[in-house]
Design brief:
Elements: H1 3-11, E1 17-19, E2 26-31, E3 42-48, E4 55-59, H2 62-71, E5 75-77, E6 86-90, H3 97-112, H4 116-122
Antiparallel strand pairs: 1-2, 2-3, 3-4, 4-6, 5-6
């Protein structure tokens, strides 16, 4: 997947938006917003700018993370993130586009589970 294809897919999820809290080198995709009562913004995807292949970091279930890393050399522990709960994927074709999209939806679903207000407003990303 290209950066633009990945970004387009990520931003198609309900309530997803782009931010650069760590500078221009990392595109951070969030859901929720601190200005909405009872809601906190939560990041669910990061794309390292200017990398080839494109590298995306996603939240992931710890057990599934290990299984993915064992099966695919393009999947590694989350770069500069909690390595237990995040993975980084090099989009080099090892994982099919639909698999990357599924992992994006899973990451989105994991962060929208808490707090309930986010899930109530945006769902869990499985509608797309």
């Amino acid at each position: 997947m290209t950066h633009s294809q990945l970004e387009e897919y990520i931003l198609s999820l309900p309530g997803a938006w782009l931010d650069y809290p760590f500078g221009e080198q990392a595109a951070v995709y969030k859901v929720g917003h601190k200005d909405i009562p009872g809601q906190k913004e939560r990041m669910f995807a990061l794309i390292a700018e200017g990398t080839d292949p494109v590298r995306v970091s996603l939240k992931c279930d710890p057990a599934y993370s290990i299984a993915l890393q064992e099966r695919h050399s393009s999947v590694s522990p989350g770069y500069h993130l909690n390595k237990k709960h995040w993975i980084t994927i090099a989009c080099d074709g090892q994982l099919a586009e639909r698999e990357v999209q599924e992992l994006v939806r899973t990451s989105y679903a994991l962060v929208t589970k808490q707090p309930g207000a986010i899930k109530n407003n945006y769902g869990d990303g499985n509608d797309s």
